[in-house]
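Provenance

Sequences were taken from public entries as deposited. Structures were produced by running a predictor on each sequence independently, with no templates supplied. The record for EAL domain-containing response regulator from Aquibaculum arenosum is shown for reference.
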Amino acid sequence: FDTSDTSAHAKPSDTDYEPKAHPAVSPDSIVQGLNDGQFTLHYQPVISCAAGTPVGFEALVRWSHPQAGLLLPQHFLAVAETAGLIDRLSEIIVSQGLMWFSRHFRETDLLLAFNLSAHSFHGDSFIDRIAAASRSVDIAPERIVLELSDTGRVSDPTTTLNILTRLRVNGFQLSIDDFGIGYSSMSELLRLPCTTIKIDRKFVTTAKHSEEAQKIITSITDLGRRLGLRVTAEGVEDDWTLSFLATVGCAYAQGYFIGRPMEGKSAVEWVNQQEH
Ligand code: C2E
Ligand code: CA
Ligand code: CA
Ligand code: CA
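Predicted structure for EAL domain-containing response regulator:
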């Protein structure tokens, strides 16, 4: 990955979204956006449930579209995947995220998580590139979490498993994203060399008013502990839920109650505010 500084500029903040690709999104417009540096990252804080202190961020891609404004992943990711542009996008995201992270947090032990489409593991060059990128910005692979979703549906499971295993051997952390909703969640635990489970936010946002959701969260946390995996909950929208997660022994939490996805500058300020 190219880790020279290309970090771009997204001004507007997240808005509520309606599903489906935005009308302005075509493969050609994505290529244009890639060439013009219109893709940028927002960072959402992750904290320790027990201590309440920052443990890192999840990088979430945004598209600063010249006409449509700030677009969320659901407006363009599917088009990018279908058009075979996801590798180029991931490359930009990883180098941009690592540059930012190294500039501000190299001397800390915070983590940075990236979302990777399982479809983007076409060749082993991915391992070499992310390893070289993390080395060039002096961030240990142990501080980089790769969040995987939809791994049950890749066209070549053997190659994917091979690449994930080698990433793990190289020290990168692997997390099963959206745990609990995929039809293959449980078998992924057996198959994949993961270090973290990320409980799907559907369970977390409903926990406060659903005993069933609470039991599912308790069970997943218990399962994670037995398997020696760290459990993260996303979608924490109120303090009741955060306390509940601490009580059941969930390690990490993320959600609007803790912090929204924000621009790099605000994310740095957020960490500084936590420490004082
Ligand atoms: P995800 O990985 O499950 O990311 C969490 C999503 O939940 C994010 O939506 C985040 O903004 C949202 N969220 C965070 N806290 C809360 C909360 O308290 N309540 C609720 N209701 N939602 C919350 P976002 O940023 O729109 O991303 C959507 C999905 O797009 C992500 O789901 C991920 O699968 C994908 N994605 C995002 N960035 C990337 C990327 O760089 N590469 C790839 N391949 N996929 C990405
Ligand atoms: Ca994720
Ligand atoms: Ca998720
Ligand atoms: Ca997802």
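The beta strands are 39-48, 54-65, 69-71, 111-117, 144-149, 173-179, 196-199, 230-234, 252-254.
DSSP finds ten helices and nine strands in the chain.
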